[in-house]
Design a protein that fits this description.
Layout (H helix, E strand, L loop, with lengths): L1 H9 L1 E3 L1 H23 L2 H7 L18 H20 L3 H19 L7 H13 L16 E3 H21 L3 H4 L5 H4 L10 H5 L3 H21 L4 H18 L5 H8 L6 H11 L17 H16 L11 H4 L14 E10 L6 E3 L8 H7 L3 H17 L6 E10 L5 E2 L26
Antiparallel strand pairs: 1-2, 3-4, 3-5, 5-6
Length: 439
């Protein structure tokens, strides 16, 4: 079995799909970074908030000055251009810089987490290890690379789609058509599509179509006779999600990189449409290095990506309610959730207790995300305790009254309002101060 895997990974194939992928992905990264700066999100997300929520284990990642962040985004743009056109050590440096700059900006504040940011970071990471001796100027008809390079990119795309589809196989999504039953009618004013979204059966059709699309689209992209029709479906599906939801350039990213499933000849034509080949060179093969270790690393990476989304089974309770194990599991747009969080800070010397005005510390987006996610509630409670202690309070206690609504059901308490959150620490262990959802 292992020997067959090595043979599969080491088989030589055309380098054209990789070169095409680098051009498309790099161009999308350039567009995304420019858009981010143009919309003023560096200020909104990073420099104006007084407090930033952190990913567990990454509290050491700090924001930077406005000038530094603009410089980082310019470096991101240059490195994205680098992965499009450079080769050799210059390409490798560009790929490392792109991964570090993009991932750094995503680690600054947890409230801006999206599945597609995580996906982009993974792709940037994988590009670091792609063959560096190819470029758009190479003789693509003759240049070959190991199959493992294309396979790992296709596999990562497949994992995203398949897990997104499997996550939709649940009672609320398929039988009750939630949360699409909430979202679609709210968009009934969209030009041409509004009446379709308002039709009472549309949420059920869209729910089942979304599940089937995510679960099976990669199979139809792989199978040559259905590939063109499948790609048209990719365009239609992601165009609709782009219209309905605020998910940035993710639809464009998926439309662009899904083209990796097309034939070698198609990719050669695409690259040559934008970049003219330099003087023809003899046939180039991938270096004859021993790729055994690299193949084991690929297998290890894939095993991790397949198993990691299942960690939620180790936690008790309703996943959508507790969100323990929810992130990084490709659960895309599965619930409508909102909350209100009122924090109480008590001076343990005088016994006086006061209510916190969250808007003094958080912007509207941060407050919205915090008020329904337990780990963020805990982080903010610790921040408040430290802040008011610095203002003269004696060993303050912090408790929170948090009411959350899930898929338009009546609000319920998310956490025990009597627990002193200053005494609780975040970890991978289940949070015993949550009030579990019972329906």
């Amino acid at each position: 079995m292992i020997e067959k895997a090595h043979q599969f990974f080491n088989t030589k194939i055309s380098a054209a799909p990789l070169v095409s992928f680098r051009l498309i992905f790099g161009a999308l990264m350039v567009f995304s970074a420019i858009r981010f700066m143009y919309l003023g999100w560096i200020e909104d997300h990073f420099t104006e908030p007084l407090f930033h929520f952190k990913y567990y284990g990454f509290s050491w990642v700090k924001s930077a000055s406005r000038f530094t962040l603009y410089a980082i985004h310019m470096l991101m743009i240059l490195s994205a251009i680098g992965i499009m056109f450079l080769q050799g050590i210059a390409y490798r440096i560009a790929a490392v810089v792109l991964f570090l700059t993009f991932t750094y900006t995503e680690l600054i504040d947890l409230t801006y987490y999206l599945n597609h940011y995580y996906f982009v970071s993974l792709i940037c990471f994988l590009l670091i290890f792609m063959p560096s001796y190819v470029s758009p100027f190479s003789n693509l008809k003759n240049t070959q690379i190991k199959r493992s390079s294309i396979f790992i990119l296709k596999a990562q795309i497949a994992i995203l789609y398949v897990y997104a589809g499997l996550a939709k196989i649940n009672y609320e999504w398929l039988i009750e058509a939630l949360p699409l039953k909430i979202w679609l009618p709210a968009n009934d004013n969209i030009f041409l599509l509004g009446p379709l979204f308002a039709w009472k059966y549309s949420p059920y059709i869209f729910s089942w179509a979304g599940m089937l699309y995510d679960t099976f689209i990669v199979l139809f992209l792989v199978y040559t006779p259905t590939r063109v029709w499948a790609y048209l479906t990719v365009i239609l599906f992601h165009s609709l999600t782009g219209i309905l939801f605020q998910i940035g350039v993710f639809p464009l990213v998926m439309i662009g990189i899904a083209s990796i499933f097309f034939s070698d000849a198609w990719h050669v034509k695409l690259v040559r449409f934008f970049v003219k080949e330099k003087a023809p060179v003899p046939k180039q093969n991938s270096p004859s290095s021993n790729y055994t270790l690299f193949n084991y690393l690929i297998l290890g990476y894939l095993v991790f990506q397949v198993l990691f989304p299942w960690r939620y089974v180790l936690y008790p309770g309703n996943l959508f309610w507790t969100e323990e194990g929810y992130r990084f599991s490709w659960r895309v747009m599965l619930m409508e959730k909102a909350g209100t969080a009122t924090f109480y800070v008590k001076d343990n010397k005088t016994g006086r207790e006061g209510i916190v005005n969250n808007t003094e510390f958080l912007n509207p987006h941060q407050e919205k995300q915090m008020a329904m996610q337990p780990d963020m509630i805990l982080q903010f409670a610790h921040f408040l305790g430290q802040y008011y202690e610095s203002k003269g309070m004696h060993k303050p206690s912090v408790r929170a009254e948090v009411y959350v609504t899930l898929n338009a059901r009546p609000s319920r308490l998310l956490i025990d309002p009597n627990v002193d959150l200053m005494k609780e620490k975040d970890s991978f262990k289940p949070k015993n101060w949550l009030i579990h959802y019972k329906d």
